[in-house]
Request: fold
Amino acid sequence: MDFILQALLQLAVIVAAVKLMGELAIRIGQPSVLGKLLAGVLIGPAVLGWVESARWIEMFAEIGVLLLMFLAGMETDVKALNENRTPSLAAATGGVVLPLLGGWAAGLWLGLDQGEAIFLGLVLSATSVSISVQTLRELGKLNTRESATILGAAIADDIMAVLGLAVVLGLVLAGDVNLALVVGKMIAFAVLAVLMIWKGVPLFLKLSSRLHVTEPVTSAAIVLVLLMAVAAEMSELAGIIGSFAAGLAVSRTPHGEAVLKRVEPIAYTLFVPVFFVSIGLHVSFEGFSGQWVPFIVLSALAVLTKLVGAGLGARLTGFNLRSSLVIGSGMVSRGEVALILAALGLSGGYVPAEFYTTLILVIVLTTVAAPPMLKWTLREPKPAKEPERG
Reply:
């Protein structure tokens, strides 16, 4: 079949599967995100084999996650984000240190060498809150203190993960990495982001609004998302941090509400569904034979170390037990960040080929586990029944 026709057919299958599986999840009392993630497993190589990962799917998925985090940035209160910087840093620290140590210990138990075990811990310490953000948005909890802490912790987590990767590659695995250069790039991006939020984006949107073409401001906002994502990637950070910063900046302009209403249909009808499916497309049981024990142990370890580590950080900075569990649950998803690290480890020889499939399944399981965990921890406690009076 012609490539274009095949891609169009697969895109139709992806969008239909995401919407139908999302509806099914809602009907059984779960966030629609859970069904959307499982749609990728269903139509991908693991079950039906209708869709396989391809470059165009990866590109659509990348745009989808960037738009998802852009929308999250637009709906995030900058003041709340700043007010919760201390618990965010504490949650991120606990959510990195505990999985890193746990993954390293598990790697040694599995017979990996010292460098491979440390790299495994690094993969498990990664966090991608794009799935958690969508769940919080769906449940109407994106403008809460817990949500602001999760978003702040995700940014701090990404910085720690990049620095950790630089240290591991540069010292433990004898890679050619300049730590000072990595830190310098991060600082440069932080300065750029502040300047864009303060002056650059408002001016850019104001100038674009004077154009006489169709949707000039929305188009300018999309350009900003892509450019900020590229700038973040060039600074050794995840592109989603750049798109999130772009969302924060656009939301502070007079055009914020109009842009939000116009970008949502673009994101949720096409690009975000492909992103959800792309996670499930990584699932394959090839080479998994005899790996059940490592899979179960690593999955439990991956969930518990993030839940306890991030939750403990939140608890120590003033959150109650329920809110701490919400924050810990929001940090459980490893998503695309850990998938990228795992692929990097495989190509660089830091992840043994026979162990790669198991690691991918663990990453996908933690990603799928995040939505129901968040819904469970966010449930409202039932009011106590008043005693009957005789």
Remarks:
- The two ends are 77 Å apart (CA to CA).
- The first helix runs from residue 3 to 27.
- The chain has a mean pLDDT of 86.
- The domain at 3-378 is CATH 1.20.1530.20 (Na+/H+ antiporter like fold).
